[in-house]
Amino acid sequence: MPLPHAPVDITFAPNGRDGFVTVGAVNASILPIRIDSKGVPSPNGPAVPVGGAVDGLGSAEISPDGHNLYVASVTGRQLVVFDIHDDATLSEVKQRVAGGINTIYPVITPDGRHVFFSNEISGTVQAFNRADDGTSSEVAGSPYQAGLLPHIASTTPDGRFLYVPNMGSSFISSYEIRPDGTLRPLPNVDFAPEPGVKPNRR
Fold first, then answer.
1. Are 94 and 8 in a shared domain?
2. Could you tell me where the DSSP H helices lie in the chain?
3. Statement to judge: residues 94 and 47 lie in one domain
4. Contact (Cβ atoms closer than 8 angstroms) between residue 186 and residue 201
5. Tens-place pLDDT, residues 68-114
6. Which H or E element spans position 83?
7. Is residue 202 a part of any domain in this protein?
8. Do 78 and 149 fall within a single domain?
């Protein structure tokens, strides 16, 4: 499937049929796609501009209910929120959430209540509560300190914990996700130990 600019990431709706491709290092846009019965993707409506010449996209994440798309604008230092229509096309930009330097890799808890993303150069993780309409509000204490070059964050399937590998450090930043969306830092564990040496907590 030819694309007008370089594709950066692809993410799929819970129905497994509809998806979205983030396109462009600058003047970025989001292209809705649909996967046919043979697995071939094709455009599903027009590409939607993110809105700024400085917007260069990283990864994207769809909410568990399939109603919203969250896209990290790396160079724009923002998390950009869209509504997903019933036909799997996108709204115009619904919300812009300020991030740090190199905003990357949004992640949403399985219950859809909390949103997190890493700021790679700032060395932080930001935490938000997600409203029923998909908009996000930052929680008290955010951003939270991570290690050097925090990267792809993940939550546990029960939504109780958040883990952030740090590419420039030898440990994974670990947090408890509290019911109000705030994070409680847990001991970090060294994941670059010497062979035969038990990893250490920090």
1. yes
2. none
3. yes
4. no
5. 999 988 888 899 999 999 999 999 999 999 998 888 899 999 999 99
6. strand 78-84
7. no
8. no
d(CA 133, CA 116): 17
**141 and 76: one domain?**
no
* Cα separation, 62 vs 82, whole angstroms: 10
105 domain residue, yes or no: no
124 and 187 together in one domain: yes
Q: How far apart are CA 173 and CA 71, in angstroms?
A: 22
Domain span holding position 73 = 1-98
Q: What is the pLDDT of residues 158-168, one digit of tens each?
A: 999 999 999 88
Instruction: Summarize pLDDT for 117-127 with one digit per residue, the tens.
Output: 999 999 999 99
Closest CA to 147 of 165, 127, 128, 126: 165
Q: Which of 77, 78, 80, 43 is nearest to 61 (CA)?
A: 80
Q: Which of 75, 98, 121 is the last residue of a domain?
A: 98
Q: Which residues contact 121 (CB under 8 A, 6 or more apart)?
A: 100, 101, 102, 149
Domain boundary, last residue among 46, 74, 98: 98
What is the rounded distance in angstroms from the CA atom of residue 6 to the CA atom of residue 23? 6
Neighbours of 55 (CB within 10 A): 24
- Contact by Cβ (8 Å): 152, 105: yes
